[in-house]
Every structure is written in structure tokens, then in C-alpha cells.
């Protein structure tokens, strides 16, 4: 996992080949929201210490946008883990929040309710609460008691710093990619997996070998009047310096079409 400000994860898959089943170590990467406590998430989002100063209106708007649709779980209930999806943020700080607790509209503060009901003392009363449920019957949960649920993919646009970090992770040299795949297989310990044993599946801890050959580059022939009459491309590239084409012609128009193998066959049948 690589830190971007959001969470990065590598996705692994399997694919069929002609003779057997191969484990495809495709290192497809995507940004995920880190499973942080909401206060820490807000601090990273605003890039400032949120524990010492009250939040501004612009800060509230940014937090609301950043947490929109994010799932979180509460931590103030000992043996109960309940997950919620954020609906809104309160406009007032926690120390000013009151809500009715019975049919007689008896009002109680959020701070008193958390203390009496769960024995949880809210320390930073200047922070806002997360609102869950509908507007008519909303529930308030303080940021101190909330943690973001792990495994949520980030669907929002990344900033330039995050894009640069993501490209740095995904653009690997072949040798580094090979080592990452081997480490992943070693770490997953498929030989100890109970399901793999049950179905008699064995994964070899080395890369599959594929027989292949590299064709030599063709020698290019240029005009006799040029300083260089022949050219052997190096690493798949060459330039026209000191060279002249044998029979240069002007083109009035051109067409470039990228076809799959199936499209080529269909095109051949039409022609």
C-alpha cells in the first residue's frame, strides 16, 4: 500500500491460458480512502490543526464535500460496531447542539447524552457532528467517535500531488514489477490456504516461462547520394540525419485505422 492522501491498493486477478490456469499478477492500482479517524481525516483535508481552533464556514463546506457519501463506523460503543453513511454536517458546534429525548420535547445536549448513555466524554466540543438519517429524525455523532470504514474506493478527482504519487507507484521497471509479484505470492502463502488445499490447487512460487525469440532489426536502405546509405535501427529507433530517401513523394491525404485481429478479418472479407 502506498500513501497518496487517499489509500492505494493493488488488485490481483486470475486468467485462463491455453494449457493451465495462471495467476495474473496485474498490479492495477486505484485510490482508496484511508481508514482514519474522522478528526485525522479532516485535519489532512484542511491541512491544519483542527483541535485548537473552531472551523470556518469554508472549512465546513470543504469537509462536507470531502465526506459526502463516505461510510464510517462508531467507536464509542464497546461491543457494537455500527456503520453509517454521512448525510450532512451540523452547522453548530457540538457544545451548542440540543435535541428532544421524549414526547414532551425535553431537550438534552449531545455532550450530556454521550456521557450518560455511553460513558463517553467528548473532549473537543468546538468540532461539528456528523449527521446521519433523514432531516426530520437526524442522529448526531461526534467526530471523536467515528472512524472511516476500510476498503472504500475514492471516486473523487485526485489533485496534482496525488496523481504524481500514483504515477510513481504504477510506472515500475520490469525488474521491480517482477519482484513485487514474487513478494505478493510469497506473502499470500497459497500453499497454506485451506481452500487451495481442499481443491488441490498448487501455485508455483516463480514466474511462468514463455518461449520466444527476438527478431533482428531490418537494415534500411537510403539514396546513394546521401552521406549514410544504410541504417541499422538501434533499440527500435533511428533518425533521418545525413540520409536521403530513394524516391520521395508528396501525399495529398492519409488515413490511419487501428484494427483488432477480428476487425482485420472482417475487413478482409469485405474487400
TrEMBL record:
Residues 37-150 form the PAZ domain. Signal peptide: none annotated. PROSITE patterns: PAZ. InterPro entries: ArgoL2, PAZ_dom, PAZ_dom_sf. GO terms for molecular function: RNA binding. It comes from the Eukaryota. Keywords: RNA-mediated gene silencing. GO terms for biological process: regulatory ncRNA-mediated gene silencing. PANTHER family: EUKARYOTIC TRANSLATION INITIATION FACTOR 2C. Belongs to the argonaute family. Ago subfamily. This is PAZ domain-containing protein. It comes from Brassica campestris (Field mustard).
Amino acid at each position: 500500500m502506498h500513501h497518496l492522501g487517499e489509500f492505494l491498493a493493488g488488485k490481483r486477478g486470475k486468467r485462463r491460458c491455453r494449457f493451465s490456469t495462471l495467476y495474473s499478477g496485474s498490479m492495477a492500482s486505484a485510490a482508496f480512502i484511508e481508514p482514519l479517524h474522522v478528526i485525522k481525516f479532516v485535519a489532512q483535508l484542511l491541512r491544519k490543526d483542527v483541535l485548537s481552533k473552531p472551523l470556518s464556514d469554508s472549512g465546513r463546506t470543504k469537509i462536507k464535500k470531502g465526506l459526502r457519501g463516505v461510510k464510517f463506523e462508531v467507536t464509542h460503543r464497546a461491543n457494537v460496531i455500527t456503520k453509517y453513511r454521512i448525510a450532512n454536517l451540523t452547522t453548530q458546534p457540538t457544545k451548542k447542539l440540543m435535541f428532544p429525548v421524549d414526547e414532551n420535547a425535553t431537550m438534552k445536549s449531545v455532550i450530556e447524552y454521550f456521557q450518560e448513555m455511553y460513558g463517553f466524554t467528548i473532549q473537543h466540543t468546538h468540532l461539528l457532528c456528523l449527521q446521519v438519517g433523514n432531516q426530520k429524525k437526524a442522529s448526531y455523532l461526534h467526530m471523536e467517535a467515528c472512524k472511516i470504514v476500510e476498503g472504500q474506493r475514492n471516486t473523487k478527482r485526485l489533485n496534482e500531488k496525488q496523481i504524481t504519487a500514483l504515477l510513481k507507484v504504477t510506472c515500475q521497471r520490469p525488474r521491480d514489477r517482477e519482484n513485487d509479484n514474487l513478494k505478493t505470492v510469497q506473502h499470500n502463502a497459497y500453499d497454506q490456504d485451506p481452500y487451495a488445499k481442499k481443491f488441490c490447487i498448487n501455485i508455483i512460487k516463480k514466474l511462468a516461462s514463455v518461449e520466444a525469440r527476438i527478431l533482428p532489426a531490418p537494415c534500411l536502405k537510403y539514396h546513394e547520394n546521401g552521406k549514410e546509405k544504410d541504417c541499422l535501427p538501434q533499440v527500435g529507433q533511428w533518425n533521418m540525419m545525413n540520409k536521403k530517401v530513394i524516391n520521395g513523394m508528396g501525399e495529398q491525404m492519409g488515413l490511419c485505422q487501428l484494427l483488432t485481429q477480428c476487425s482485420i478479418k472482417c475487413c478482409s472479407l469485405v474487400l
